[in-house]
What we know:
- The chain is an alpha+beta fold and 691 residues long.
- It folds into two domains: 16-319, Distorted Sandwich (Beta-galactosidase, Chain A, domain 5); 341-689, Glycosyltransferase, CATH 1.50.10.10.
- 33% of the residues lie in helices and 23% in strands.
- It has 18 helices and 28 strands.
- It has a ten-stranded mixed beta sheet.
- β8 and β9 form a beta hairpin.
- One 2-acetamido-2-deoxy-beta-D-glucopyranose is lined by residues 18-19, 82, 91, 93-94, 110-112.
- It comes from Aspergillus cavernicola.
- Keywords: Signal.
- This is Glutaminase GtaA.
- Residues 1-22 form the signal peptide.
- InterPro entries: Glutaminase_GtaA (IPR052743), GtaA_central (IPR032514), GtaA_N (IPR033433).
Amino acid sequence: MHFPPLALPCVLLASITDAVSTFSPARPPALPLAVKSPYLSTWLSAGRNGGNGGYLAGEWPTFWEGQVAGWAGLVRVDGQVYTWMGLPGSTTVNQTTYEYTSTKSIFSMHVGNMVEMNITFLSPITPNDLRRQSLVFSYLDVSVTSLDGQSHNVQVYADISAEWVSGDRSAIAQWDYGVTDNGVAYHKIHRQTPLSFSEHRDQAEWGDWYWATDSGASFTYQAGADVDVRGAFAKNGTLSNTNDANYRAISDKWPVFGLSHDLGSIISSTSVLFSIGLTQTEAIQYTGRSDTLTPVLSLWTSYFNSALEALDFFHHDYQISYIFSSGLDDQIAKDSIAAAGQDYLTITSLSVRQAFAATQLCGSPESPYLFMKEISSNGNMNTVDVIFPAHPVFLYTNPELLQLLLQPHLEIQESGHYPNSYAMHDIGAHYPNATGHPDGNDEPMPLEECGNMVIMALAYALKANNTEYLARHYTMLRQWTNYLVEDAIYPANQISTDDFAGPLANQTNLALKGIIGIEAMSVIARMTGNSNDSRSLTNYAHEYIERWTTLGIAHNATQPHMTLSYGSDDSHGLLYNLYADRELGLNLVPQSVYDMQSDFYPTIQQQFGVPLDTRHRYTKGDWELFTAAVASTSTRDMFIRLLAEWINRTPTNHALTDLYDTVTGDYPQITFVARPVMGGAFALLLLSEGL
Ligand SMILES: *[C@@H]1O[C@H](CO)[C@@H](O)[C@H](O)[C@H]1NC(C)=O
Ligand SMILES: *[C@@H]1O[C@H](CO)[C@@H](O)[C@H](O)[C@H]1NC(C)=O
Ligand SMILES: *[C@@H]1O[C@H](CO)[C@@H](O)[C@H](O)[C@H]1NC(C)=O
Ligand SMILES: *[C@@H]1O[C@H](CO)[C@@H](O)[C@H](O)[C@H]1NC(C)=O
Ligand SMILES: *[C@@H]1O[C@H](CO)[C@@H](O)[C@H](O)[C@H]1NC(C)=O
Ligand SMILES: *[C@@H]1O[C@H](CO)[C@@H](O)[C@H](O)[C@H]1NC(C)=O
Ligand SMILES: *[C@@H]1O[C@H](CO)[C@@H](O)[C@H](O)[C@H]1NC(C)=O
Ligand SMILES: *[C@@H]1O[C@H](CO)[C@@H](O)[C@H](O)[C@H]1NC(C)=O
């Protein structure tokens, strides 16, 4: 077996960029820039296959789906212009370092030995502050200082293009310029004809984009053709304070929206702040308990009277927001290192923005919802078997967020708007339309989703100390458990969450989920005073698990292990559903099964991990992390080490995929991008913390 070289050697990078940057704690496949919601999701591809290797200057940032999101940065130093972001054409500055935390991407750049720039992309995450979390905005802070002790004349410029407002480059963009009462200068850009609740290449076709900075004496702006606006800055260091109102197609003389600050003669650190964001008053359509599809407001509209008020608040909130986000960064860093070391932090800190940015807060403070997009795989809304792998990050940061993700499922099914007796797969076939499945024709994953719903309901209630929640939803949870009792021991031929791998009968790991779900329901019954249910369900669970340990084992294997499906001794798979037994503290599954699996995985490891199962060479990063969380220390560390190494070396080019080839590190036939399931990285942290 031979392994192709994956990372570009440093010499090669050096010749591309003139200088070599460090990447800390890793060089991820794509560097998160502004990553805050399904529609504000801008990355810099590290471009191992043809890109420039993770340098902010010299390559365009892209939307997660891959299309360019024109975002350019220029700096003038003593009359010479340089590019620090994007590919607008001038000489690039020299990137020296790149670092990411859970909420920030921080670049350091040198312009000769004259000045240093620190460029910080902060996508704030405030899990316990829904007002701040509800804003679909992100910061870009640029600070400049003299490197050589001499004073230098510096102007800083940044623009966005109209590419942000639609995925259709022939769509007509329209724009405006203004200044808020509190001195925030902004370009407002939108599709001339908004298409409510519509997407094009996964970009939103409705809502207003704001691109803003502080106004003031040294500030100028300009909207117009890219060459004109960037050209004016390059030539003069100022913009014309004009707003070319020739509204036109995004690709017609590419309109860009420039903001520029003349810092004058600087010697010590001086900074300018930009904010980028999307405001949609109505963000989602939802049927819920009713029969009619109704628009749901973005949650921020409950806290702010207008988009401008929200923008104003956000822009002036930088210091406080920075402190909150740094608090989260530090907590995740401390907990991750304590749980499993630096490699683990490399993974968790890259995953948290990605997981949160698949969600959006809507509704009102009295009745909030968290909607989630199944990004890249099919756009389903609040998919149960996507929430399940992602759920550890939400329980870890604020268990109420998990409750808000499950809420629409309970509303639709408890009000009788779903005909099947097992749990619904998702709340709508495509974000942002939560139309439910009144015909019952959703992707059928009955055992998977019934198990997931019961397990997550209990996990939430334990973490949030909310027994009343279990009592309120008892009937529905009990109904789903009937399905588990019928099907869990001999799962019918069906797909599991890993639907791309195809259907199979008697899946060992799927059966395990169902059996654990039964025991979880027994605990729910006990907590809510339904002791008869509790007794009979725990009897089922214990009887099933005893049979399962025999049915599921590879009897004659040289290295004992559980199978992929009953009786097929040559098969194996990641037994990631064991995680829920530990998570909920059930102690249902014998320790011998944990030990056997821990001993087995190292024997089948490949260069970048352990295959998902014997049908393919690919694996799932999220399930590896669930598996690792309940493995022996040495096996856990093997999983984590290989995944961290994969992050550094994978030839994949977009926001973290959860599906990759364990030998080449590349995408298999299927390309998954930016999916929230990577929130599963927090599985181990959740166990360390306890419910
Ligand atoms: C970048 O570094 C190279 C090599 O040291 C140097 O030749 C070049 O002038 C630098 N460019 C800038 C903009 O600092
Ligand atoms: C950039 O960050 C580094 C490390 O925090 C700091 O030492 C340096 O002074 C900063 N430079 C600027 C221009 O802010
Ligand atoms: C959502 O539904 C609306 C009609 O209400 C439709 O125009 C739009 O294309 C749908 N959006 C998506 C992403 O399917
Ligand atoms: C250059 O900037 C000055 C002010 O700094 C302004 O008066 C002049 O019109 C600008 N020239 C161009 C070509 O934009
Ligand atoms: C959990 O909730 C119960 C009932 O509301 C309360 O009595 C108890 O103090 C709570 N426990 C903790 C640890 O907060
Ligand atoms: C499942 O396994 C049992 C026991 O080995 C077997 O009797 C049954 O036929 C299997 N089911 C299917 C659908 O293959
Ligand atoms: C619980 O089971 C006992 C014994 O089988 C029975 O007498 C009792 O009525 C049951 N209670 C409920 C609430 O069903
Ligand atoms: C295991 O091996 C024994 C002895 O070779 C054989 O009798 C038995 O049928 C095998 N069991 C399975 C499940 O393959």
